[in-house]
Structure formats: C-alpha cells, structure tokens
UniProtKB/TrEMBL annotation:
This is Response regulator PleD. It comes from the Bacteria. Coiled coil: none annotated. Residues 86-140 form the PAC domain. Residues 348-482 form the GGDEF domain. One of its GO terms (molecular function) is catalytic activity.
Length: 489
C-alpha cells in the first residue's frame, strides 16, 4: 500500500501537509496577528524557548524573548519592518524562559489574503547559537592575532629605539615610554647596582609611579638570589620578595644583564590584580601574556644597556687623554665651539685658561719620563678636583692644559686659575725614592667676548697671556690686560 493510500489518498490537502511541517519542523514558528500579538506557536518553538502557547498567546513575542543583551538596533529594525508591513531577516539574541541566551536567525514575513488585506505575521526562528559561538571564537582568534601582531610591532619598534640610544639617559627615557605602552596596566621600575654593588638604586619608574623604594638590597629579591627572572602570582608555590610592600599583588622581577654581568633589575607590579580583584582565568591569561612580553623586554634592555656601555667606552676612548683621563684636543675643539655658539646666542660669558707646567723638560731629562708622566697625572688630578660643573679640564698635548670655563667671566676665571696654581705649588712628589723639585704652573686667561668671538682668537690671546706669565717669572696667572699694557708701552 502506498503512502498516499495510507494517508487518505486524494483527500489529502495543503492544510494537512502544512500542519505536518509545522509539527515536525526544527525551526520555531510563531503566527501573530496584524497587531503582532501571538496567536499560535509550533512544537519546535516551545522546545527552543520553553514557552508554551498559553505563555505567549496575546503577547508580542519580542516582549518575552528579548533580554538585557539583545541588540536594541535589531529590535527597532523588527518593529520598523512590521509597522511598514515588509519582510525582515536578521540575527538576534533571544532568551529562553529560564533566562538562557541563544542566538536565532529570525525571519518575519507579513501575510496577505486574496483581497490584499494584511492578516498575519509568520515568524520563523532557527537556532544559530553554535554558529555564533564559532564566529565569536574566530573573532577572538583574529583579535588575539591582531594583538600579537601589534605587540610584535611595538617590540620591534622598542628594540629599534633602545639600540639607537646614544646615552644611558636616553635609554631610560625609551624604557619608561616603551614599558608603559607595552604593559599599560602595570607600574614598573628599573634599578641599577651602585658603585660598590651593595645596593640597587632606582634610576627610572613608570605608570602611576607608586612609592618604589629608592634602594633595594640584592638579597631582598628572589630573582637576584636565584639568578633568573621571577614571576610572583603565576605558580602554586611562591614567596614574595622582601622589597615588595604589597605581598598579595602579582609582580615580575627580571635581572638586567650586560656582558654576562648582572647590572640591575626591572620590577613590574600589577596593582589591582589580586585574587579578589579579577577573575582567576582572566588574571592568569593576562599575566601569562605579560610575562612573555616582559622577558623579551628585559632581554632587549639588557642588550641595549650593553650597547650603550660599549658605545660610551669607545666614545670615551676617542675623546679622553689616555695618560691623564682629561678631555683631549678633539673634544676640546668640538665642545668649545659649541659653547661659543651658545654664548653668542644667549649673551653669556665663557673663558679659556691656558696652563703650562713650568720647566717640565727638566723632570723628563733629570728624573726620566716616568717622573714627567707622574707630574702630568698629578696636575690633571688637581684640575679634576676643582669641583665646578662649569669647568672642563683638557690636555691638549705634552705639558699643555686648558680649562674650558662656561658661563664664567674673566674675574672668576682668574680665581679658578689661582686656586689651581696654589694647589699645584703645594704638591710634594717623589720618583724612585727621591723627592722631585716643586711643581709650578703658569696660566693665561682669555674671555669671550672682550678678547675675541672665535675659538682661534681666544686661544691665541690665552696663549699670549700664558707666555707673558712665563716671561714674568712663571708660577703666576696673567690676563689680556697685561698684554694691553705691554702693547701700550
């Protein structure tokens, strides 16, 4: 017997088939009147939503199905289409009777009778929660990849700036800006070992700048004691460092290493990431990501510090006199030219003090070159102890020295020269167990702009004043005024 005979043969009509579809369709169906109030729902709708016909009959479906996270623009689009009696189809977040959210592909179609009168709305809902979950997962993956790409670009940019720093001060500036940008939710500090390596001294901090201690002891930090980076807040067994005040706050301690030597520590603290301040899974995910970034940053900072140190050493060798440690002729020429430009532009003072060791040749001839070198080093040492940040001691060659005195007019420059001259005269030196003769110096002073506006002219005037001091008996200081008297005579 065929299916048609079983179901009634030719008496089957469209209504029977429609009812069969409505009963067994997996899509929820709601039939509403022209006023949008529900008249009938199928079995799939009740299974989807938990609402029976008695729950929704006479009510607008959206009033029950839409919830707090339903897109209001989508709800308005449905209302507008229905008011204009046109079909609308969109994805919308609905809520089951028990409050569970689920996504549906909703299609609302107006129905007209043979006379063209609007009689009903038919709404069909297909559950697309799995599809939406997959889309959200893909979107999250795209977002995560975009964040990783952005982080990689920032790290590359940070590396470029770090390696371009020509001084330690510039390096610290880059570290502050880069770390605040790469890990914006954290505060941080950079410590460097002091000269005696007894403490680590705070040299930079960033973020909201909490009260980081100015100095910490090496034994107070687990990272320094263990010789490797330490993350507090990521492991089941952990102990806080003694230099950290908030014992429950997650933080990282990362040693900074240059040329194989630990020279400092980077400390990064996540205030507000305590156990009760953020959901555990979010906290762990964020900290894990920031840990990876911090390790890379610590390595780059270490390499940059080593690079700056090497560059500084090479620069120092190129501009320092190897015997005395004073600035050499090359540095003097560049710096004096720069200071003259500033003095000309801002109308400030500048002086040069030309210095020569009296009877220097006798030290070499009578006591040997070692004795001569000793005299030069001792005079240079006294020049470095003048204690004036505006005075730059230089050795131009042989026994010839110069003091570059910025923002210093002639009278204070003469006082500086006289102070140095008296200190040199008080030296008591010996070589090979034998005392050396008293060391004295002669000085000539020239000042901008009364003695000249160019470096060449100032050097000539200071040299002439120096020569005048030697002619006058040595162990004295002369200025350009003595030259004027001579010229006038």
């Amino acid at each position: 017997m065929c299916a048609k005979d079983c179901l009634g043969g030719d008496d089957l009509d469209e209504g029977f088939y429609a009812a069969l579809v409505a009963r067994h369709s997996s899509d929820g169906v709601v039939i509403s009147g022209p006023d949008r109030t529900a008249l009938w729902v199928n079995t799939a709708f009740s299974a989807q939503t938990g609402y029976a016909l008695a729950d929704i009959q006479g009510k607008e479906p959206g009033s029950l199905l839409q919830g707090p996270d339903t897109d209001p623009d989508a709800a308005r689009a449905i209302a507008l289409a229905c008011s204009q009696r046109r079909e609308v189809r969109l994805d919308i977040l609905n809520y089951m009777r028990d409050g569970t959210p689920f996504w549906v592909d909703l299609k609302v179609t107006p129905v007209y009778d043979a006379a063209g009168l609007h009689t009903h709305f038919i709404s069909t809902m297909r559950d697309i929660s799995e599809r939406k979950a997959l889309e959200d997962q893909n979107e999250e993956m795209r977002h995560s990849e975009a964040m990783r790409q952005s982080e990689r670009q920032l790290l590359a940019l940070t590396s470029e700036w770090l390696y371009s720093a020509k001084s330690f001060e510039e390096l610290l500036m880059v570290v502050r800006r880069a770390m605040h940008t790469l890990i914006p939710e954290a505060d941080g500090a950079l410590y460097i070992y002091g000269p005696q390596r007894a403490t680590l001294d705070l040299v930079a901090s960033w973020g909201t700048i909490p009260e980081f201690p100015e100095h910490i002891l090496p034994d107070d930090c687990w990272a320094l004691r263990r010789g490797r980076a330490y993350a507090f807040g990521l492991k089941p067994i952990q102990f806080p460092c003694d230099h950290v005040h908030k014992k429950d706050t997650p933080y990282f301690c990362l040693p900074i290493i240059a040329h194989g030597e630990t020279i400092g520590l980077m400390h990064i603290i996540f205030d507000g990431f305590e156990e009760d301040g953020m959901m555990r899974h979010m906290r762990a995910e964020v900290l894990s990501n920031r840990w990876d970034i911090s390790l890379i940053c610590a390595e780059q900072i270490s390499l940059a510090v080593a690079n700056v140190r090497l560059r500084h050493e090479l620069q120092e060798r190129s501009v320092r006199d190897p015997l005395t440690g004073l600035w050499n002729r090359r540095w003097f020429g560049e710096q004096a030219t720069r200071e003259l430009t500033i003095a000309e532009r801002e109308g400030t003072d500048m002086s040069l003090i030309a210095i020569d060791v009296d009877h220097f040749k006798q030290f070499n001839d009578q006591f040997g070159h070692d004795a001569g070198d000793l005299v030069l080093r001792e005079v240079a040492g006294l020049m470095q102890t003048l204690g004036n940040e505006q005075v730059f001691p230089c050795r131009l060659g042989g026994e010839e020295f110069t003091l570059l005195c910025t923002q210093t007019p002639v009278a204070p420059a003469v006082e500086i020269a006289e102070t140095l001259r008296k200190r040199v005269a008080g030296l008591q030196l010996s070589a090979g167990g034998a005392p050396l003769p008293t060391v004295t110096i002669s000085c000539g002073v020239a000042s901008f702009a009364q003695d000249g506006r160019t470096l060449d002219l100032l050097m000539k005037v200071s040299d002439r004043a120096l020569y005048k001091a030697k002619q006058s008996g040595r162990n004295r200081t002369m200025t350009s005024a003595a030259l004027v008297d001579d010229d006038g005579a």
